[in-house]
Design a protein that fits this description.
By secondary structure, the chain is of the alpha/beta class. 55% of the residues lie in helices and 7% in strands. It has two domains: 16-81 and 152-289, no CATH class; 87-146. Strand 4 and strand 5 (251-255) form a beta hairpin.
Length: 316
Amino acid sequence: MDGSRPVFDGFHGDWSFWVNPEGLLAELSSCAFICDTNVLLRPYKVVRREERDVLLRALEEVADRMWVPHQVMVEVDNMRSGAVAAAQRDIANVADAVLTDFRKIEMRCRRGFHDWGTDRGEAQLALRNFRAAAQRLVQFIREQGDSHDLVEEDQQAFVEDRLKRLVQGRVWPDPGQQKRRAWEEDGKNRESERRPPVWADRKKPGDRKYNDGLIWQEIKEFASECPSTRPIVLVTLDLKDNGWVEHRNGRPNGAHSSLVAELNRDAGAIFRVISTEELIAYAETKLYDSPDVSTSDCGPADVEGALRPLGSHLFN
């Protein structure tokens, strides 16, 4: 493949990761990485410390080119305290779902055994074995919630301190009420016109449905101050269709084509979306090592290839 993006069945989206991975890796070597809210909250939700450390190390690896929208930090600040409890609730919900499904299966089996005239002793033994296995599974699931080491306050403080140092000086300033009101109106228009990134969150309550629209406006503002040669890469776990990404055949297919076009039109910038798994692969395996792409022109008032410290109003 050459470096151009192909067009399949009228689709003009961001195919770079799937069709031209070398091109994406070259872009990652000079881009600005933008963290979504869910990425910065993820370390609080991960049960296994090893998995948490892998993500934090990847973020620290690219910290010199990391930028965080103000709206993201507002959301992180509001949601941080409940993130661990939410993770434990999610685990408990899985255990409850297993029990509910088991009861449904047990009822169907009992009806079937009765209709088929199956030997009662043999059937009861099979059900007892199944029930014991289900109970062991539920116990194992609940233990995962109990073993979440961030339940301990000292571990929460450790992760919080690590994240504070990670975003120190990299958060965009508060845009102010005037801009925010204008951006919220834009979000309402995007909702009515079924446009990303707002359309994917249309079912969220209240003004929360416009949060990604606020983040997008900050991204556009930031990109307009960067050199046009610097790609803008959003790292997110939010891969819903018609949000940050576009789906093809039921699967995420890269940055939404309309957002790619919008950022190019309004800021002359390239827009990409990657998952945390792709960020980790980039940071750990150094697959991007071969492309020779200069990082000397890196963003507003860059110093030695790093973005200028932006000054956090939440962490400083």
